[in-house]
Specification:
The protein has 112 residues and is mainly α. Helix content is 54%, strand content 0%.
Protein backbone atom coordinates (compact mmCIF):
# COMPACT_ATOMS: atom_id res chain seq x y z
CA UNK A 1 0.00 0.00 0.00
CA UNK A 2 2.78 2.42 0.93
CA UNK A 3 4.59 1.62 -2.31
CA UNK A 4 1.40 2.33 -4.28
CA UNK A 5 1.02 5.74 -2.64
CA UNK A 6 4.63 6.65 -3.36
CA UNK A 7 4.28 5.58 -6.99
CA UNK A 8 1.06 7.59 -7.33
CA UNK A 9 2.73 10.69 -5.89
CA UNK A 10 5.70 10.24 -8.22
CA UNK A 11 3.34 9.96 -11.21
CA UNK A 12 1.54 13.17 -10.22
CA UNK A 13 4.81 15.05 -9.78
CA UNK A 14 6.13 13.74 -13.10
CA UNK A 15 2.91 14.71 -14.91
CA UNK A 16 2.98 18.21 -13.45
CA UNK A 17 6.62 18.67 -14.50
CA UNK A 18 5.81 17.53 -18.04
CA UNK A 19 2.86 19.94 -18.12
CA UNK A 20 5.06 22.79 -16.95
CA UNK A 21 7.70 21.97 -19.54
CA UNK A 22 5.15 21.82 -22.34
CA UNK A 23 3.62 25.12 -21.24
CA UNK A 24 7.04 26.74 -21.55
CA UNK A 25 7.27 25.81 -25.24
CA UNK A 26 4.17 27.63 -26.44
CA UNK A 27 5.74 31.07 -26.63
CA UNK A 28 6.23 33.27 -29.66
CA UNK A 29 9.91 33.04 -30.65
CA UNK A 30 9.70 36.03 -32.98
CA UNK A 31 8.39 38.22 -30.19
CA UNK A 32 10.93 36.58 -27.87
CA UNK A 33 13.77 37.68 -30.13
CA UNK A 34 12.55 41.27 -29.98
CA UNK A 35 12.15 41.09 -26.19
CA UNK A 36 15.57 39.48 -25.75
CA UNK A 37 17.14 42.33 -27.72
CA UNK A 38 15.27 44.84 -25.57
CA UNK A 39 15.55 43.23 -22.11
CA UNK A 40 18.65 41.00 -22.13
CA UNK A 41 21.00 41.94 -24.93
CA UNK A 42 22.21 45.26 -23.48
CA UNK A 43 24.06 43.30 -20.76
CA UNK A 44 24.53 39.93 -22.49
CA UNK A 45 26.44 40.71 -25.65
CA UNK A 46 30.06 40.31 -26.66
CA UNK A 47 30.88 43.94 -25.74
CA UNK A 48 28.29 44.73 -23.06
CA UNK A 49 27.04 48.28 -22.67
CA UNK A 50 24.41 47.74 -19.97
CA UNK A 51 24.57 48.83 -16.34
CA UNK A 52 25.82 45.41 -15.20
CA UNK A 53 28.01 43.93 -17.94
CA UNK A 54 27.61 40.18 -18.18
CA UNK A 55 29.15 37.54 -20.43
CA UNK A 56 27.80 36.84 -23.92
CA UNK A 57 24.59 34.88 -23.69
CA UNK A 58 22.94 34.52 -27.08
CA UNK A 59 20.71 31.56 -27.95
CA UNK A 60 23.66 29.52 -29.19
CA UNK A 61 25.53 29.90 -25.88
CA UNK A 62 23.62 26.97 -24.35
CA UNK A 63 21.95 23.72 -25.34
CA UNK A 64 18.17 23.31 -25.10
CA UNK A 65 18.34 21.39 -21.81
CA UNK A 66 20.57 24.11 -20.35
CA UNK A 67 18.09 26.83 -21.33
CA UNK A 68 15.32 24.83 -19.66
CA UNK A 69 17.44 24.67 -16.48
CA UNK A 70 18.14 28.40 -16.60
CA UNK A 71 14.46 29.26 -16.74
CA UNK A 72 13.48 26.68 -14.12
CA UNK A 73 16.06 28.16 -11.73
CA UNK A 74 15.61 31.78 -12.73
CA UNK A 75 15.09 32.95 -9.13
CA UNK A 76 18.77 32.12 -8.46
CA UNK A 77 20.14 34.25 -11.29
CA UNK A 78 21.89 37.58 -10.63
CA UNK A 79 19.52 39.34 -13.05
CA UNK A 80 16.35 37.89 -11.51
CA UNK A 81 15.47 41.24 -9.97
CA UNK A 82 15.23 42.69 -13.49
CA UNK A 83 13.08 39.76 -14.63
CA UNK A 84 10.48 40.55 -11.99
CA UNK A 85 9.45 43.52 -14.14
CA UNK A 86 8.90 41.28 -17.18
CA UNK A 87 5.55 39.51 -17.58
CA UNK A 88 5.30 35.72 -17.49
CA UNK A 89 4.14 35.74 -21.12
CA UNK A 90 7.13 37.81 -22.20
CA UNK A 91 9.52 35.53 -20.28
CA UNK A 92 7.96 32.55 -22.02
CA UNK A 93 8.49 34.24 -25.39
CA UNK A 94 12.15 34.93 -24.53
CA UNK A 95 12.59 31.33 -23.40
CA UNK A 96 11.05 30.04 -26.62
CA UNK A 97 13.41 32.18 -28.70
CA UNK A 98 16.46 31.02 -26.75
CA UNK A 99 15.37 27.37 -26.72
CA UNK A 100 14.61 27.26 -30.44
CA UNK A 101 17.96 28.90 -31.27
CA UNK A 102 20.04 26.83 -28.83
CA UNK A 103 23.36 25.31 -29.90
CA UNK A 104 21.83 21.83 -30.29
CA UNK A 105 18.61 22.98 -31.97
CA UNK A 106 17.94 22.37 -35.68
CA UNK A 107 18.57 26.10 -36.30
CA UNK A 108 21.18 27.49 -33.83
CA UNK A 109 21.27 31.28 -33.76
CA UNK A 110 23.53 34.00 -32.53
CA UNK A 111 21.74 37.00 -31.17
CA UNK A 112 21.64 39.39 -34.08
Amino acid sequence: MKKMIIMSMAAVIFASQIGLALAMFDGNSRKGRFLYRQECRPCHMENPIGPVPAHYLGPDAKRQAEWAQVFEGRTELPCYEHWQGVSAEDLNDIFTYLYEGAADSPTPQKCG
